[in-house]
Write a structure and sequence with these properties.
The chain is 42% helix and 16% strand. The protein has 360 residues and is α/β, with parallel strands linked by helices. The strands form three sheets. The protein has a seven-stranded parallel β-sheet, with helices on both faces. A three-stranded mixed β-sheet has the order 7-9-11. Strands 8-12 form a two-stranded parallel ribbon.
Length: 360
């Protein structure tokens, strides 16, 4: 378990800190540690500062709106705040959007990571010896870089990369850049690959919040293909704890896979959402399972992901606190109790509809 004093009197820069996982990391650092947090975010469509409600007026929090592709702006941030750690969560992340418009994924996930690495290297090389030894850059990635699994087996830290979507290809490329900057220049980097995250403050384009909102509205619940694609689910607050632990105690140059051993088919996930909504917010028209429909599959849809988290469990003592059942119950309850958060997104013009059909 991470000590609250782990980052006391030190500054951590979190890129993408207004996104889904990034905001969970910022909330954790503000609530459970004494770190000073600088949230560096471009504030794209999926960013939401309302996802960090405790940030308003917080003495240990600063927001810097900038694009990680802007090297000069990053340099100013490093010079001003003198961080001991950087947690890179800035990324375009929606697979369907990467099919329709891959260029922004290449720009942010590849060019942005390159620019961040270059400016981090410049900053790190000019630190004193003690500060150099303390400094870390943690790059947060995904299990999707490994491609699709067969019916058996798990992704490990030694699994070969085989990305199948524009999103996962750009994340794979960014992982390779991070490794290269460590091996070539000695930059003290860490890398994590996580399974699918879910939980509070999740932007409505992703599967679980998408189905929750459609279920509440009594609309059709569209499931890709036959619904038997399998994902391994991780509660986002468990992930945030793991990332802080890796930054503090992880071995430089190492990769850690983060997952909760919670494989479910997409159909099982949607059925669980229906049952929880029926229990917590009954519909007058009957079971929401009747709303499930099957639609043409996503182009290049990976069949199965599953993470082996043994290394982080063994080396750092991390364990998830939420099972899939408890995490899903908390998630559905959160969306029912926080309508203001997601209704504001809908009022701003976001439409809960399918994208990612350009590849068909």
């Amino acid at each position: 378990m991470l000590s609250p004093d782990a980052f006391a009197n030190h500054t951590i820069v979190v890129t993408g800190g207004a996104g889904f996982i990034g905001s969970a990391v910022v909330r954790y650092l503000l609530e459970e540690t004494h770190a000073n947090v600088v949230n560096v975010d471009k504030l794209t469509y999926a960013a939401n500062l309302a996802s960090i409600p405790q940030a308003n007026g917080h003495a240990r929090y600063k927001l810097e709106k900038l694009d990680i592709c802007d090297g000069n702006a990053l340099r100013r941030i490093f010079e001003r705040y003198q961080p001991v750690g950087i947690m890179n969560l800035a990324a375009e992340s929606h697979v369907d959007r990467s099919i329709d418009g891959p260029s922004v994924f290449v720009q942010t996930n590849l060019v942005g990571t390159f620019t961040l690495l270059q400016e981090t290297l410049r900053y790190w090389q000019n630190l004193g010896s003690e500060q150099r030894d303390r400094f870390r850059l943690l790059h947060v990635s995904t299990d999707e870089v490994f491609g699709s699994l067969a019916d058996e087996g798990l992704f490990t830290e030694e699994s070969p990369y085989a990305p199948n979507s524009p999103y996962s290809a750009t994340k794979a490329g960014s992982d390779h850049l991070v490794r290269a900057w460590h091996e070539t220049y000695g930059l003290p980097t860490l890398l994590t690959n996580c399974s699918n995250n879910y939980g509070p403050y999740h932007f409505p384009e992703k599967l679980i919040p998408h189905m929750i909102l459609k279920g509440l509205a009594g609309e059709s619940l569209p499931v890709y293909g036959d619904g038997m694609n399998i994902r391994d689910w991780l509660y986002v607050e468990d992930h945030a704890r793991a990332l802080a632990l890796v930054l503090d105690r992880g071995a430089v140059g190492e990769t850690y896979n983060i997952g909760a051993r919670s494989e479910r088919t997409n159909r099982e996930v949607v059925e669980a959402i229906c049952d929880l909504l029926d229990a917590q917010c009954p519909s007058q028209t009957g079971s929401r399972r009747e709303l499930i429909s099957f639609v043409p599959d996503r182009p290049g849809h990976d069949r199965r992901y599953a993470i082996d988290p043994s290394k982080i469990e063994r080396a750092l003592g991390w364990q998830p606190r939420e099972s899939f059942s408890s995490g899903m119950a908390r998630t559905v309850r959160w969306y029912l109790e926080n309508k203001i958060w997601w209704e504001d997104i809908l009022r701003r013009g976001y439409r809960v509809e399918r994208v990612g059909l350009e590849g068909r």
